[in-house]
Amino acid sequence: MATPFHPLRPCPPPVPIPARSGHEVAASASPTISSPQFKVKILHPVENVDLRLLLLENISQEAVAAFRAQGFHVDHRTKAMTEEELIATLPEYHAVGIRSKTKITARVIQAAAKLLVIGCFCIGTNQVDLSAAAQAGIPVFNSPFSNSRSVAELVMGELVALSRQLFERAHELRHGVWNKQSKGCWEVRGKTLGIVGYGHIGSQLSVLAEAFGIRVIFYDVLNIMPLGSARQVDSLSTLLSDADFVTLHVPELPETINMISQPQLALMKKGSYLINNSRGKVVDIPALIDALQSKHLAGAAVDVFPSEPGSNGAPFDDQLNSWATALRNTPNVILTPHIGGSTEEAQRLIGEEVAQSLTRYLDYGSTIGAVNFPEVDLRAMAQERGDYIRVCHVHRNQPGVLKQVNDALSPYNVEKQYSESKGEVAYVMADIADVSIEEVAMLRERISGTPANILTRFLA
Ligand SMILES: NC(=O)c1ccc[n+]([C@@H]2O[C@H](COP(=O)([O-])OP(=O)(O)OC[C@H]3O[C@@H](n4cnc5c(N)ncnc54)[C@H](O)[C@@H]3O)[C@@H](O)[C@H]2O)c1
């Protein structure tokens, strides 16, 4: 299985995308990696040269421009589509880009006979039937980390706002009350920030906090190389008892649900602060309310909740979460509607990242970053080798398939080959030399005729 990407571990550099042949690259499109020594061979599907993409839910114009610069036909719609609309529309398209409102069900996937790839231009992928997509040979890509910096910056703002009681003073003055005071207000300089979860967000935050003169400690289940002067501690208890501010940046897992409850809050220093921008269930909120009301904690910022309203304007009340009124009435608590990652920059990055993933898959076969699919990639081919063909074969994960594929490839020189499986689906990519376009039809017939075949594509 592929090792999960971690921001502080080395990872292979992404292969930049050269433009499809016959198309000029726009200035904003990915650079080519051609150099005097190595010119990259530009690939595109042997069939389906005129790939059609449907982008729904007003996906960013940066993504539209990136696709058009690569020569794809793009239809852009501002709204989501219903299941019936998708069933009627998607059969025309090779790729679809959605956000969270469009549901790609098994019925939609079954109807979309030409569909090769799905791009979720957002963080989550719950709106797609991932298993049905994988079994139809369709990888699904998203952009889970494009908003890390936005979250880290919000935490920096919250550190200062909490330690200066900013929201209390601003609220009073809005209501006509002048209340200048310094008691209980602190600089963040020289204080200790405890970061729980030193991943994409936690590590970004570490750098920003040190620039403010804050001492950073962190706790993570993995041993991670600290950035700057940050220091990893060996237990959550050590972090809780040492930090003036505790901020949570872990995923929601069975072991992180209620990881901050009454015993952990009791370990925190009197007068310290808790910030949760991770997932709503990581903090036991009634226990947090008790710790705030007893003045054990001096304040908290909460951006994520166990139950969140489904749409803007909806009430945030006790029907949704039984403790909502108590939390809203607790002083020096900053409550925000899950906006940690909501910035225009994050949206733009999401557009660019998902557009690149779709293009890499359609033109180069790479599934690196796919959420439902075996992750496979091959290094770029050299341009002067005009007789290379790349075979991309998705099949059911069962014994004997590679032997059948390699029997079909055996008359040729297989320069590179890589295969990987995930659950019931496996994917093999191979670059073969000295094969003419005319021989591709015969190869296609042999490989796509194998019993476990799901999808066979050729790129040249
Ligand atoms: N508020 C928002 O709008 C918003 C936006 C983006 C992400 N998030 C959430 O922020 C969280 C962190 O995101 P990220 O991108 O940094 O994730 P990440 O996967 O890059 O990092 C998570 C880190 O937590 C560590 N971890 C896992 N279990 C742990 C445990 N039990 N104790 C200590 N450390 C543990 C992991 O090893 C990893 O280093 C996620 O829950 C994500 O859903 C919220």
UniProtKB/TrEMBL annotation:
One of its GO terms (molecular function) is (S)-2-hydroxyglutarate dehydrogenase activity. Pathway: Amino-acid biosynthesis. Residues 54-372 form the D-isomer specific 2-hydroxyacid dehydrogenase catalytic domain. CDD domains: ACT_3PGDH, PGDH_3. GO terms for biological process: L-serine biosynthetic process. Keywords: Amino-acid biosynthesis, NAD, Oxidoreductase. It comes from the Eukaryota. Residues 158-340 form the D-isomer specific 2-hydroxyacid dehydrogenase NAD-binding domain. SUPFAM superfamilies: ACT-like, Formate/glycerate dehydrogenase catalytic domain-like, NAD(P)-binding Rossmann-fold domains. PROSITE patterns: D_2_HYDROXYACID_DH_1 (PS00065), D_2_HYDROXYACID_DH_2 (PS00670), D_2_HYDROXYACID_DH_3 (PS00671). InterPro entries: ACT-like_dom_sf (IPR045865), D-2-hydroxyacid_DH (IPR050857), D-isomer_2_OHA_DH_cat_dom (IPR006139), D-isomer_DH_CS (IPR029753), D-isomer_DH_CS1 (IPR029752), D-isomer_DH_NAD-bd (IPR006140), NAD(P)-bd_dom_sf (IPR036291). Belongs to the D-isomer specific 2-hydroxyacid dehydrogenase family. This is D-3-phosphoglycerate dehydrogenase. The lineage of its organism: Eukaryota, Fungi, Dikarya, Basidiomycota, Agaricomycotina.
